[in-house]
Amino acid sequence: MGFFSFARLGVALLTLLAARRVYWELTVGSQRRAFSTQHGCVPAHKKKTRLPFGLDMLLKDQKKFREYRVLEYIIEFFRDENAHTIDLRYVGQHIFVTDDPENIKTVLATDFGRWSIGVARIKWMGSFLGTGIFTSEGPVWKHSRETLRPCFERSQVSDISLLDKHTTRLIDSLSKDGSTVDLQPLIQDLTMDITSDFLFGISTDSLDKSKDDKHTKEFIKAFEYIMVPFDVENLGLWTVVEQLLPNRKLKKCTKILQDFADRIIDEEIAARKSSPSKPSRYVFLHELLDTVPDRIRIRSELLNIFLAGRDTTSALLSNVLWTLSRSPTIQSRLRREITSHIGDAVLPTFTQLKDMRYLKAIMNESQRLYPVVPSNTREALVDTTLPRGGGPDEQSPVFVPKGASITYHIVAMHRRVDVYGEDADVFEPARWMDGEHGSSPLRPGWGYLPFSGGPRVCIGQQFALTEAMFVVVRMLQTFPVLESRDSEPWTEKINITASNRNGCKVSLRMAE
Ligand code: HEM
């Protein structure tokens, strides 16, 4: 083909593209402008980028990842931009980022039906979890949620005996001579044993030293690899490309997760054959076996629940004990509350735990400063609006086109000075105690959201808090000395949850 033919082809292509653009402007574009005007929308603050496609932001994100300072960077980002809702173009995607409670409420609750959990999440998580409560929407999600809901009724959540059995195993396994113990991995075993016992009727029993926990260890390692299948310290542009290539280790790890869940199902089927009597409480796995004929679906639901119940509660519990170990004043006050509400040797009841205001304040404050799910994303299913963020004062609605995403940063919202005061970066449980901190009681509403909100609010919230509070009380009752053995600051380890990558290193002593 000669030069002129190439030139002609080029001109034809450009004309076609221009015509397509004109057509788009006259149809979709004009509809969107009309929609935006009708709703009084004004553009949001735009993040200026130096490189095309926001590549400079990607490079900066990667640098912060390598330094384990992504969360700190997110908090600073909103402060530096001096805005709460920001419009970004990021590697070919149109994303709004926000730490505005009104916008988050709209996406999660008021306009729930206009937003999806996003194709990326369904595809990525679905590839190793299968279809379950975390990876589905519409009727499939509704069915999962309805099957799970009875597990979390008060009568079930308030059953302390299950928590006690596993917590006693944890306490028995700890060194009590004052040597350094990292509580974090043990707490991860604990939450996994409790979640499996509570929801499947069969515990993974990884804290039971008489049992071989080879499969549990393998499962945990596989899960951790799937969440972050690259070396964080060598993260670079190449890593992005690498993630698109086939990965045999990823497949192997997915198989390990599936085999692990299959073993639980097989065990339950065998137990049913040998003893057909049903337990008195509602057990999620039993209900699934009775109502869902598809084995793969059952396995997927189990894996979805492990994701939900293990790392989350263990991160909270580990953070709380880490904080108590290095804050003698807060620890002493909590010890006094335990002594006055329960006593030092007696098992706490569900009601007593609920009545402990200072313990609850510590839980709140830990989740405020170190939210276990620090950020999350949704995708617009239709052209829609956010109620705030438009114009220089951010008080006007913002137009969001179908397909754009919103990333809401709970971690930044929990540090907002206008909501929490000038000491928003300080760990101060008293801010949650009416009349003890500041001139007016703290009522953050949607400005405090560790468990999300709206129809997809965390279904395990009450269970997680009861579990964490129970373990904290039992630990303090058992160990009059709980001291830190870690001089490092809290440092993030991020996958889809955030925990302290330095663990929870403490020294414990029993009474003489
Ligand atoms: C401190 C502990 C926990 C925290 C901070 C937490 C936080 C969250 C958050 C933020 C979500 C919303 C996710 C989203 O919409 O994308 C969520 C959903 C969920 N959580 Fe939790 N969670 C915790 C413990 C648990 C436990 C112990 C269980 C169950 C044993 C559980 C079960 C679930 C389930 C099933 C969902 C999905 C709900 C749905 O999509 O309908 N969570 N959790």
UniProtKB/TrEMBL annotation:
> GO terms for molecular function, please?
heme binding; iron ion binding; monooxygenase activity; oxidoreductase activity, acting on paired donors, with incorporation or reduction of molecular oxygen
Kindly give the CDD domains that the UniProt entry links to this protein: CYP52
UniProt entry keywords in alphabetical sequence: Heme, Iron, Metal-binding, Monooxygenase, Oxidoreductase, Signal
Q: Which residues form the signal peptide?
A: 1-24
Residues given in the record as heme binding sites:
C458
Cofactor(s) needed, names only, are: heme
Q: Which InterPro entries match?
A: Cyt_P450, Cyt_P450_CS, Cyt_P450_E_CYP52_fungi, Cyt_P450_E_grp-I, Cyt_P450_sf
Asked whether the keyword Nucleotide-binding is assigned, the reply is no
The record's family statement is: Belongs to the cytochrome P450 family.
Q: Could you tell me what this protein is called?
A: Cytochrome P450
What is the source species?
Answer: Polyplosphaeria fusca
